[in-house]
Amino acid sequence: MKSKLTEWADLVEPVRSVPESERWGYRTKTTLSARFNGNIWEFGMWRRDEFVPIPNCPVHAPELNRVLALLADSFPREHSFALAYVVISGAQVVLVIKSKQEPTLTWLSEDVAQGLASMGIEGIWYHMNPSTGRRIFEKSGWMLIFGKTRSTDYHGSLYGPAAFQQLIPELYNESLDEADRFLHPNCNSAVIDLYCGTGNSMRRWINRGANVIGAELGGEAVECARLNAPQAMVLRGACRQRVPQIAEWTDKNRYQGNEILLYVNPPRTGLEPEVLEWISKQGLPNRIAYLSCSPGTLSKNLNWLCTNGYRLVRCVPFDFFPQTHHVETLALLERVSADTY
Predict the structure, then answer these.
(1) Mean pLDDT across 155-162
(2) CATH superfamily, with its number, for domain 2-19+168-335
(3) Which pTM was predicted?
């Protein structure tokens, strides 16, 4: 991480993590390839052309490993059951079927359903996707086969089967606390929340009294965000595609005297060029909190922002994925060429 951010090394703080005792058995979310080896079902990962089973993974929560074991014991022991992936997101399970044909449900007996429910599973889905691969999910092909369509996370927010969730609540909340203190939103603020997910961060800005607009690509996440943060305006689509609507909303709030603030939590690809252009040329938020999952794209985006009117104040790394090399970084920036409105 530091090698990618050498230009700002003096602003990068020590990595924040959890105690050693909490660095194992923390994952309640996983995506694993599935393979029937002619005898049993195995879950793991493909490395080139080799399948690597991962039974009882030590970073998985014990409940998650028990769910995987029960599923493996319950599935039909035949290749015609075209299971490609098992995706578990908290209390929601998705079985990705590499076929258009809906598979049998005979394996899902009342005993199996009750067993899964006793382990905290609230919804099980078939997702028929004959082209599944690097892109696991498609828009269509979803079928709920057990339980309910949505569950509630540690913030009391609704989420569905394909929702992204941070895995360690205390660290994620700590990152939001830092962003909150830096942005300092209030009733005279307008917060733009890009890549807003299911709306946990938006709820925080709303609770501070701010006007809030969010943008998110995933349809399911947008539906949940609108339920979780009904006071916010939530736009569906790639953020670059929603720049005109965001710009109109921002201009209106600026005219009303609200301070413009920005919170972003983009995917690994970072901020889109159109978004960066809008931030530095038109949006002009006074402060930016940028939670990044890729030091490489963060470095590129910081280079752009810091040569277009912004100054990096702090970089706070968070070890959201213990026992991996992956570190997320909260970058806090302020505008140094602010005009008077």
Answers:
(1) 93
(2) Vaccinia Virus protein VP39 (3.40.50.150)
(3) 0.93
